[in-house]
Specification:
Number of strands: 5
Mean pLDDT: 87
Number of helices: 2
Structural class: alpha+beta
Largest sheet: 5 strands, antiparallel
Order of helices and strands: HEHEEEE
Oligomer: single chain
Distance between the termini: 58 Å
Shape: elongated
Radius of gyration: 25 Å
Bound molecules: zinc ion
Strand order of the largest sheet: 1-5-4-3-2
Length: about 130
């Protein structure tokens, strides 16, 4: 490690130590700081993705249970109360004057107050019931 003092360009992103004057692209004081930083960043990115994937999977389970109960419509507050996250879907299309949302192979339309037209997307293999 360089202990040079004086003109300092920045601080190490990991430990906050002053970086020696030199290469302007330097962000870390040493390799182990860079490795630690990247490791934590990797975990953070993974956490964001996992949270979204978990929310989508949870949504799918909720929609599936509604289908199994023969429901094709449900009020938005009731769906929220079940833990449904309206932001986590796999696709969205504008179909004529409806907003069609999909969570994997289940689709529904959504209005201000409720979702309706809940059904499996046709032409896909229906998953076996657990
Ligand atoms: Zn450092």
């Amino acid at each position: 490690m360089n202990s040079e003092e004086g003109c300092v360009r920045g601080k190490c992103l990991e430990c906050g130590a002053d970086l020696p004057n030199g290469r302007s692209d330097m962000k870390f004081c040493c390799t182990s700081c860079r490795n630690r930083y990247n490791y934590r960043k990797g975990n953070r990115d993974k956490g964001v993705k996992l949270r979204t994937i978990n929310a989508i999977n949870r949504n799918y389970e909720i929609l599936e249970s509604l289908l199994e109960d023969g429901a094709s419509t449900i009020d938005n507050p009731d769906l929220s109360a079940m833990g449904y996250n309206f932001d986590c879907i796999t696709s969205y299309h504008k179909v004529r004057n409806h907003n069609e949302y999909r969570c994997y192979d289940i689709k529904y339309y959504k209005s201000e107050s409720r979702i309706f037209g809940l059904s499996r997307v046709e032409g896909r293999t229906v998953r076996k019931k657990r």
